[in-house]
Design goal:
mainly beta; Porin; 52% strand
Length: 314
């Protein structure tokens, strides 16, 4: 009898393992980054390094409902740390929180629920193409650079405010909504709702939102993206209560060979006194998930920025 029970237990455990899966993915990048006006005490030219590893666990019920969780491990060098303090050593303190808080999700048909340290509607790209085609190895310039909208993705703080996002896709139509909880006094509560539609080679989307707490701010963003001939493009407009004028941005990606493409970006954040940012970059595919990337541009403070390096996906 004990043998029968043991065999049954092993069979159930094996079946459970077959329905679950753990995968790893991520990327590494390294190169040089230049900023004309770095913080006091820092060199204008610095090494750029980032390593990101995603640990993804999934399981599926007998009824076909999929459950998932993702844990991100990420380290950065000083150019992505607290370098604004002027203390190069302090920049590495960010790596003490290399393990981010987890994200959980549930999927059934066209429905998906994300909970925890996850992106909101605008940042996720579910309905609005907010970032477009970034310039350079680090995408130091994007079509939304300097915008005042509180688009937030996966954070690296211990007290990261949790987000709940719901998305439903039905054919070419997608609707999404998110809410970020004001768990601490230093955070704003924020909600967003959006609608996106894909037709032919084009996608349009619009999202509205509001944050309350430390900052009271209503905002919206709308985008059109797609392909015309062999040129991929994206155009974005947005506005919020904390900016002077409507902001806009545009970006394109143009192939110039079998393995090379050129990206160009322009971004105006709608804030009086800030300059219009612009830049151009390239990506050259070396095969095997490895590419050489670089770019040069001018940011909203009229400072020249540039980078060059290699990124590889795994």
């Amino acid at each position: 009898m004990k043998k029968v029970l043991l065999a049954s237990t092993m069979l159930v455990a094996t079946a459970g393992m077959a329905a679950a899966d753990i995968t790893f993915n991520g990327f590494g990048r390294f190169g040089l980054l230049y900023n004309e006006d770095s913080a006091a005490g820092l060199s204008d030219t610095r090494l750029e390094q980032r390593f990101r590893l995603n640990i993804v666990g999934t399981a599926e019920t007998d009824g076909g409902v999929k459950f998932g969780a993702r844990l991100r491990i990420e380290t950065n060098d000083e150019s992505n740390g607290n370098s604004a303090t002027g203390d190069e050593g302090a920049a590495f303190e960010d790596n003490e929180n290399a393990i981010r808080n987890p994200e959980f999700n549930v999927q059934a048909g066209g429905f998906r629920l994300d909970v925890g340290n996850t992106s909101d509607v605008i940042d996720s790209g579910d309905v609005v193409n907010y970032y477009g085609f970034g310039v350079g190895l680090t995408s130091f310039l994007e079509q939304s650079s300097g915008f005042s909208l509180p688009a937030s993705g996966i954070g690296d703080e211990i007290e990261e405010a949790p987000t709940v996002k719901i998305r439903y896709a039905m054919g070419d139509l997608t609707v999404a909504a998110s809410y970020t909880d004001n768990a601490e006094d230093s955070f704003d509560s924020e909600w967003q709702i959006g609608l996106g539609y894909v037709f032919s080679a084009y996608a349009v989307g619009i999202a509205f939102g509001s944050e309350e707490g430390v900052t009271d701010n209503d905002f919206w963003a709308a985008s059109v993206s797609g392909a015309f001939s062999n040129v991929d493009f994206s155009f974005l407009v947005a506005d919020s209560d904390v900016q002077d004028d409507v902001s806009y941005g545009a970006s394109i990606s143009v192939p110039v060979g079998a393995a090379t493409s050129i990206q160009a970006v322009v971004s105006d954040n709608g804030i009086d006194g800030d300059d219009t940012a612009y830049g151009v970059g390239f990506r050259h595919d070396l095969g095997g998930g490895v590419s050489l990337r670089g770019g040069i541009g001018s940011n909203n403070s009229d400072n020249t920025q540039a980078d060059l390096g290699v990124i590889f996906n795994f």
